[in-house]
Fold:
Amino acid sequence: MKKLDLKDIMNVGIFVVVYYVAFFASICLGYFPPAMAILSLISGLVCGIPFMLFLTKIKKPACLLLFGIICGLISLAMGSGALPLIFAVVLSAIGEILLYCFKYVPSAKYIIVYIVFTLWNVGYGLRLMLASSSTYIESLNDSYGEEYVGAMLDSVFSFGFAASVLICAVGGLLGGILGYFVFRKHFVKSKV
Structure:
């Protein structure tokens, strides 16, 4: 197996920036509490294009894992807690296994890799669902106000955890399909 070189690491860094800008722009809709329940669907759809392009560019193991670690660390640095980081690392590792099984040859199967990776968004929702700590809720209330936090939590809890995972997976599926069709020529060209 080939080892990562500086060019690979720079590629990962560039795609993390593009992905995270799209991700951050889509999760900003969370400031509207009714949209909180479907944020993972929206971000999965929006981030599909840059992520699928990223998958066409990587040919070596560990690129996706590095991508996931960096995304998780950015989330941790932005105050999202450890759950998104843990989910990002575990799910990007599973994505690496899938890429290895697909022999790093871009194809429509890469949509599965994107669906798996997109599930890291569940870490954000799970953090809120586990927010039984009155200190955490109090800090949210101080920052955003009790009415907003109440509406946000009602929106998040309205579907439940299993539905949140399903919504996230559907976002990954739709985003993966969109990204695949936008960059289909890259997937087809890679097969030759």
User: Anything to note?
Assistant: The chain has a mean pLDDT of 86. The longest helix spans residues 6-27. The chain has one domain: 6-191. The CA atoms of residues 46 and 175 lie 6 Å apart.
